[in-house]
Amino acid sequence: MVMKEENKKYPGELVEGSRYLIKSLHSREKTLETRGEFKGYVFIGRDQGLRVELDDSHEEGGTIRFIPCHMIIHIDVINEVERKEDKVKKSGTYFG
Asked: Is the per-residue pLDDT at 8 higher than 70?
């Protein structure tokens, strides 16, 4: 994965809403390029995959593509948004 030097707060993590260029295996002789917004992870049977909304550079722009993780060759970061921190709701009740 190619990352800008100044954005290393979450190294190695894909951030939902960020735009990536993903090169994956299409067949033994071909690769497939997917450019779009990362929408999260999916399960394809027992395997994990990426859910990507294709951008307008694709003829099928706006559709969702699932890419099995074991098929990925490399991922380039086009535009990475800042990760939203999960806010933990603190309860005011104490039982002890």
From this structure: no
Residues contacting residue 56 through CB under 8 Å, at least 6 positions apart:
62
- CB-based contact 41:16 (threshold 8 Å): no
Residues 6+ apart with CB under 8 A from 81: 15, 17, 18
Per the structure, the count of domains in the chain is 1
Cα 16 to the center of its chain, rounded Å: 6
- Domain with 26, as residue range(s), is 19-79
Identify whether 94 is part of a domain: no
Confidence of residue 84 (pLDDT cuts 50, 70, 90): confident
The SS3 of residue 69 is helix
- For residue 15, give the nearest of 73, 85, 68 by alpha carbon: 85
Rounded Cα gap, residues 30 and 8, in angstroms: 32
